[in-house]
């Protein structure tokens, strides 16, 4: 079973979360051409390695979290917290 640590709700069953993609990918600027967008949307690394991902706590607080997960073992080595653009409150 995959268990994820939500900074708001604590450790929860991974079934409560929806995978929302790889975090930290560069998106083309608003004027980027179609080839740049295609590469950004569909061509990601998929190796047996650590990846930084974004998950949505659908059955909990409804917030996004970022974490580092190994694609082969499903081991989670760090829960980073909400993505930078979604952080709220004083900094
Ligand atoms: Zn939560």
Describe the structure in your own words:
- The chain is mostly beta strands and 91 residues long.
- Helices cover 10% and strands 38% of the residues.
- It contains one helix and six strands; from the N terminus they run E-E-E-H-E-E-E.
- Strands 3-4-5-6 form a four-stranded antiparallel β-sheet, with no helix packed on it.
- Strand 1 and strand 2 form a beta hairpin.
- Bound molecules: zinc ion.
- The site of zinc ion has 7 residues, from loops.
Descriptive keywords:
binds zinc ion; globular; two-stranded antiparallel ribbon; about 90 residues
Summarize the structure.
The protein has one helix and six strands. The chain is mainly β. Residues 6, 8-9, 57, 60-61, 63 line the site of zinc ion.
Q: What's the N-to-C terminus distance?
A: 34 Å
Sequence of strands across the biggest β-sheet = 3-4-5-6
Mean pLDDT: 85
The SSE string, one letter per element, is: EEEHEEE
Q: Helix tally?
A: 1
Percent of residues in beta strands? 35-45%
| Radius of gyration from the alpha-carbon trace, in angstroms | 15 Å
The helix content is under 10%
SS content category:
mainly beta
Oligomer: single chain
Report the sheet with the most strands, covering strand number, pairing sense and barrel closure. 4 strands, antiparallel
Number of E-state strands: 6
Net shape: globular
Low-confidence stretches: 86-91
Q: Name the ligand types.
A: zinc ion
Outline the secondary-structure elements.
Blueprint: E1 3-6, E2 10-13, E3 17-22, H1 34-42, E4 50-57, E5 64-70, E6 76-81
Antiparallel strand pairs: 1-2, 3-4, 4-5, 5-6
This protein binds zinc ion.
Zinc ion (ZN) binds next to loops.
């Amino acid at each position: 079973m995959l268990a994820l640590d939500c900074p708001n709700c604590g450790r929860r069953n991974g079934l409560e979360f929806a995978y929302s993609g790889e975090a930290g990918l560069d998106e083309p600027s608003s004027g980027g051409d179609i080839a740049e967008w295609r590469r950004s949307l569909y061509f990601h690394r998929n190796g047996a390695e650590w990846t930084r991902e974004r998950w949505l706590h659908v059955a909990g607080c409804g917030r996004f979290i970022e974490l580092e997960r190994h694609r082969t073992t499903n081991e989670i080595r760090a829960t980073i917290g909400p993505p930078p653009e979604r952080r709220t409150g004083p900094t």
